């Protein structure tokens, strides 16, 4: 197994282009935030006053006869900048569709078809909103032994836990609730493989936690080589013994092959990223039953050309090839590989789209951060097209591709979750954590956003099985 031969294993993120794009987005977002805060403040005030008014006359609030479950999904939110700090307010079924916050009526929600039902097919499950759900999270990090310290935000003293309480709600259908036992039953004698960068590991650990919470005997789940989970591992294979099922992670941030440059290459070339050849470990992914790929965060000038890692195609160095062109070519290589080397009858392949980071006020290395972000973006997203999402969707739609390759389009939904990153709570460390530390605004706390990606994966996986059967 090839050890970590990548030029730079860096702190959270080292990318200029992407950070520039993101800081533009963040500027726009912060304007929207201001509006949101103003609206929230207004609502809170109105609600508080009206509650006071009603309670004086011992009259129930409108809608207060709804059963508790029906208000769950937007439950009570502690508004951080509230004039009454420790007070929590119930939004109940407030209808503020004229503002940027649009909380649908719960009865309408119940009318929505389930994604798994007949007729649920047409629903775009990636188009939706984050809703407050008191029944979340689906697991707690101290109960999950299969998680990096870097994602254990609560255990690393993150003070607010709201980030664990948001559920993804598609606009036009309902998702099934994740059922670890059911998923494990479906995965009996099967292999799930994640290949990609550290955000892949983030999602892989989320799935390990989601599945293992349905297993009482935790010692029946183990790494087959007894290796511990670290960010330096080339690959890790966890077996769920009672189900003869493995959930595996292969570290391959580019998916294509990183190796030595051909002879007679220019002297400044240290590594060659071969955009027309798959990573060496790809021959171990193509036998999987469920394969989740991603690549994107490492396709930056900083992590390639700057470090002497140049692009190679047709066994020749292409010194003039841009990072974007190289990324596009590598995606074509991946799609060709899926078309020709992956068994259509057996393997389902998902390409997870770009996972956005949220550095405000600078990049990861010059003071940028996401510290003290406590709420998602609930209003409409302003323009947020990410060029790498476009490259992936262009390649997927222009190339003839087999029907077993689908996109897990998580970019927009994750874009809303500026509250979901570890920030300074990415290690146990000292008690006096200071926001001036380098912050992790790229990975995600667990439980958190990657759980929702896996819930979507779960829904699509179940749906496909239903469709195959009928
Ligand atoms: C919410 O607003 C919509 C449109 O503005 C309206 O049709 C609906 O009756 C409202 N619902 C409630 C519960 O007030
Ligand atoms: C991804 O999902 C978003 C939200 O539904 C949608 O606007 C966008 O068009 C989708 N992108 C692709 C490439 O399908
Ligand atoms: C366990 O699963 C593997 C595939 O991952 C399969 O080849 C093997 O036959 C299974 N073993 C048993 C005992 O079913
Ligand atoms: C737990 O699982 C391990 C490995 O499969 C097994 O050896 C052990 O007997 C199990 N313990 C219990 C209490 O079932
Ligand atoms: C690369 O670009 C430079 C300047 O833009 C040009 O002079 C050179 O011929 C190009 N080389 C190749 C191999 O295309
Ligand atoms: C989601 O992102 C796409 C680009 O991938 C953009 O065109 C679209 O407007 C976004 N959708 C929403 C609902 O924000």
TrEMBL record:
Keywords: Membrane, Signal-anchor, Transmembrane, Transmembrane helix. Signal peptide: none annotated. One of its GO terms (cellular component) is Golgi apparatus. Residues 122-174 form the Trichome birefringence-like N-terminal domain. GO terms for molecular function: O-acetyltransferase activity. The keyword Methyltransferase does not apply. It is a single-pass membrane protein. The chain crosses the membrane at residues 31-54. Its main location: membrane. Residues 175-459 form the Trichome birefringence-like C-terminal domain. Pfam families: PC-Esterase, PMR5N. It comes from the Eukaryota. It is found in: Membrane. Belongs to the PC-esterase family. TBL subfamily. This is Trichome birefringence-like N-terminal domain-containing protein. It comes from Cannabis sativa (Hemp).
